[in-house]
Write a structure and sequence with these properties.
The chain is of the alpha/beta class. It contains 6 helices and 8 strands. The chain has helices spanning 11-14, 22-33, 47-60, 78-86, 94-104, 150-160, and strands at residues 3-9, 36-43, 63-67, 90-92, 117-119, 123-125, 137-140, 143-146. A 6-stranded mixed β-sheet has the order 2-1-3-8-7-6, with helices on both faces. The chain has a two-stranded antiparallel ribbon with strand order 4-5. A hairpin with a 2-residue loop joins strand 7 (137-140) and strand 8 (143-146). Helix 3 (47-60) packs across helix 4 (78-86). The longest helix has 14 residues, at 47-60. The radius of gyration is 16 Å and the shape is globular. The two termini are 28 Å apart.
Length: 175
């Protein structure tokens, strides 16, 4: 049975400003897919902490799912932290850059282009649904880098979930 870890990234989770919802959703999804979730880690927006948490999980588990820290703001450092942890550089992915430019057109701000920055050598993962072709999930090795906003997180995971399908885990509760 494949194994997984979740790394939740963000000061807003640790401070209680936002309630963390993505892990609860992913627990059920992974169980239904037959993936054995082994660890959930929550880290602050600290470059070295994110790098260490993600690379540790990557070495231990078949799949790692990150949530948070991939937007255009100053504290969105997940891509840079993952790059640092794996000893690669951040690169502007040409396909993502074209998508960002096409989406914002004449409203494009420099900060929006950060959405096209990925760890060097990352793969863009698209789901089978044509609607998923708009924005891919970025994957570096066995690390799937997902947004923190719960509605986006759920939608992006659902688009790619079939790539993790194994024998489902069943559970029973006895009263």
């Amino acid at each position: 049975m494949p194994t997984a870890g979740i790394v939740i990234i963000g000061d807003e989770i640790l401070s209680g400003k936002f309630v963390e919802e993505n892990a609860a959703f992913l627990i059920g999804e992974l169980r239904a897919l037959g993936v054995d979730l082994r660890r959930i880690t929550v880290v602050a927006d600290v470059m070295d902490d994110i790098a260490a948490a993600v690379t540790d999980a990557s070495a231990r588990f078949d799949y790692v799912f990150t949530t948070g820290g991939i937007g255009p703001t100053h504290d969105d450092i997940t891509m840079a932290a993952i790059s640092r942890g794996f000893g690669t550089t951040v690169m502007r992915h040409p396909e993502l850059e074209a998508k960002v430019r096409g989406y914002w057109k004449d409203q494009l701000a420099d900060a929006n282009l950060r959405l096209a920055d990925v760890p060097g050598g990352a793969e863009l993962v698209y789901g089978p649904d044509p609607a998923s072709k708009i924005w891919p999930v970025v994957c570096y090795r066995n690390v799937y880098i997902l947004p923190g906003l719960p509605t986006l997180f759920r939608r992006k995971f659902v688009e790619i979930r079939d790539r993790f399908r194994s024998a489902p885990v069943t559970a029973a509760r006895f009263c």
